[in-house]
Design a protein that fits this description.
By secondary structure, the protein is mainly α. The chain contains one helix and no strands.
């Protein structure tokens, strides 16, 4: 039971890290395409 909880927490952390990496990558691409824009929606 505790192992399952630990695995779920680890997976959630990995998902959050992947989301942040993807968001920074997407904003970086947007900044390269549109340097005058601060945010890309």
């Amino acid at each position: 039971m505790w192992i399952e909880i630990g695995v779920k927490i680890a997976l959630n952390k990995q998902k959050q890290e992947l989301l942040t990496v993807l968001s920074t990558l997407s904003t970086g691409v947007c900044n390269n395409i549109n340097p005058h824009k601060y945010q890309c929606n």
